[in-house]
Amino acid sequence: MPHDEFIRVGDTDLCAQTFGRRTDPAVLLIGGASRSMDWWDVAFCERLAAADRLVIRYDHRDTGASSWYQPGCPQYTFADLAADAIGVLDAYEVDRAHVIGLSMGGQLAQIAALANPERVASLTLIATSPQPRAPDLPPTTERLQAHFDIAAAPDWTDRSAVIDYIVAQDRAYTATWTADEETVTRDRAALVVDRSACVEASHTNHYAMRGHPRWRDQLAGLTMPALVVHGTHDPLFPLEHGLALAAEIPDATLLRLLGIGHELPQRSWDTVIPAVIHHTSRKDR
């Protein structure tokens, strides 16, 4: 297992881990809202590292062992989280990296690439959107919205209740749910809870951020290779969000994951990992 490394980015401390050799091309993984680096599965990272990649994963602010703020009072913006990704590269003395972002992490990856195109060798955008709540793109499905409407926050001091809450959230994002996925998710949720400096902040503060930027009209200016990976049954960002991304980023490649929701389950890795390895082997356009 890799070990935690604490790095200073601006006025905050972020916890990060690496897989692979420091001399290999770097791949930076950016997680979704409220997600610590634990949601990038160790086996997923190791498979990428085995293809001669230096894989970097990290805890966002307010997740895992990184700096945290009082629940409901995040002292940062969406743009700050995007800048953190470049700060992680600085800390590891990585000039350019292949950036992979999932959900909110995919949005942060787009913003980071627009602001720092010289630092991003390629983009892989998984289960994300060019602009949440865009009027021309479909909203969250009724099924998932119904879950949001009735899901009550747990007692954040009750470990078992928090784990149950996380598992229920993850189940709502999927297209199918198996007993094996229940076990894997429950084990992961327990790890996340135990690693969280403040578990309430980690599950509330990213949704309390203000000043969300608009960047969709700038996507045509991206010049690095882009791979858009999207599940055909994504309930949070329906497939049309991925189609829009692939259409609006010049020469982007679209990979549809049949029967997959807002997730990156292990059953999709045999499709996704070879695609990512091929994509991150491409020469710059």
UniProtKB/TrEMBL annotation:
Boundaries of every AB hydrolase-1 domain copy: 25-263
Highest taxon in the source lineage: Bacteria
Any one biological process term the GO annotation gives: glycerolipid catabolic process
Molecular function terms, GO-annotated: triacylglycerol lipase activity
Annotated organism of origin: Kibdelosporangium phytohabitans
Name of the protein in its database record: AB hydrolase-1 domain-containing protein
SUPFAM superfamilies linked to this entry: alpha/beta-Hydrolases
PANTHER family: AB HYDROLASE-1 DOMAIN-CONTAINING PROTEIN, HYDROLASE, ALPHA/BETA FOLD FAMILY PROTEIN
Pfam families noted in UniProt: Abhydrolase_1 (PF00561)
Listed InterPro entries: AB_hydrolase (IPR050471), AB_hydrolase_1 (IPR000073), AB_hydrolase_fold (IPR029058)
